[in-house]
Amino acid sequence: MHIKVGGYFLFNIEHPTFTAGVNEDWIYDENGKPKYWPIDNYYYTGERETNFLGQRVIKQHHTLTQILNPLIKCGFQIEAIEEAMPSADMMGMPGMCHEMRRPMMLLVKVKKV
């Protein structure tokens, strides 16, 4: 990939706290309500086999350091980082309130300098 000086690179990935989750699922209480989102082996990067939308998939887990520092080293300037969260009008949807308890997505905008 070649980006000219002044060009932008935008990407959206699963947040590392999401991919570092144990089985990418909540830990539930005895009544089936989410208690907490477990994170384990955060600094051990690489393949993670998990269940995603009912299918077994292989994902790649990386730390924020591994995601952002190479961009800086390649001459990019970070313009924006957004840990996406649901909008207020989505809060009435089942389970959506739990999406405020941990970030699921990471959006990054960088500019080639």
TrEMBL record:
<protein>
    <recommendedName>
        <fullName>Methyltransferase type 11 domain-containing protein</fullName>
    </recommendedName>
</protein>
<dbReference type="InterPro" id="IPR029063">
    <property type="entry name" value="SAM-dependent_MTases_sf"/>
</dbReference>
